[in-house]
Amino acid sequence: MSVAAQFSDLYGYEPAGVWAAPGRVNLIGEYTDFNEGFVMPLALPHTAVAAVARRTDGVLRLHSADIDAPVAELRVDELTPLSKYGQGGWAAYPAGVVWALRDAGHTITGADLHLASTVPTGAGLSSSAALEVVTAYALNELFELGLSGPELAVLAQRAENVFVGVPCGVMDQMASACATEGHALHLDCRDLSIRQVPFDLSAQGLQLLVVDTRVKHELGDGAYAERRAGCEEGARVLGVSHLRDVAYAELADALGKLEESGVDEKVVRYVRHVVSDDHRVEQVIDLLDTGRSSDVRAIGPILTEGHTSLRDDLRISCPELDLVVATANASGALGARMTGGGFGGSAVVLVESADADAVTKSVLSAFQEAGYTAPRVFPAVPSPGAHRVA
Ligand code: ADP
Ligand code: MG
Question: Start and end of every GHMP kinase C-terminal domain (predicted)?
Fold first, then answer.
């Protein structure tokens, strides 16, 4: 049954429209966003699809086909961060978007929403951003707010940061809102300027495989805040507002200065990762911009360098992610890296289309031999960002 038909079954009338917003995977640029650097995500073909209708009585009803819970019924004027719907519970994501829009001065008089999503949850593929962005797009049209994709993305991020209480950067929402088919999205996290970089994998005879390890190690819980604080300390010692301001050509000098200053050695590693990963984003863009088949393939080793940096300098990888990268590269992949926050979640693997099956098989059997849960492997086809479907 379509999401629109499910809406009609549930609420007893037809929705005003149906919208879709994708999950994302980050090609390169990790832990660079809060350093005001560069990231380069692409939208997945997996989407959250929402059927929505406007209400005028201040009531907000929310339902997900994927969650075994009754319709959540709230009042828009009672939404407050860290209330019942600001602390966990899936409804906090769409409710948070309504709150963020209202908090920014927009008039939202209520809505009925029903959604279903094909974005795997908790795999580092931003099922949460898909949920927020699809809600924001629907309400933007239904209430004729006239907000742009980037504006909606920033409001969706605010919903997640302040209402749900998750300290994420803006990459996920920007990717879900602004990505386009056949491209990766170059996002400058300083001024939120974006550029569509050609990344038409199938035309190049390539595939980017996502390998969802299906693990999430608890170690990850405090690691983000700790890395973030370390980066801030590094910037302070170097006398810059953010690590974005350390040029790659000056990296060796900067690391020497940090060592002399007596900061913890981990701060030196974090700075080395962030500044070199920003540089890797620029290298990848330069190669993709030429569109030459040999250049597009040459991003493979840069992805693998990125993984080494995340493993050894930032230290956010885990045995499962390292096994994906090592096995993929040993069985013919062009390059591979973990992607997202680390300590589990997913890796990306760049392969010749002709080698995709062989590489997938190698990874699956390596996991079996190691006694790990079988990973989920699928191709990341660079797909459109949020849009109306009906
Ligand atoms: P990620 O964004 O990496 O997938 P998060 O922990 O940020 O992981 O977000 C996952 C949460 O988003 C889920 O626990 C759930 O609350 C919400 N969510 C995602 N997809 C759906 C869905 N289809 N229906 C209801 N809630 C969802
Ligand atoms: Mg998320």
Answer: 293-364
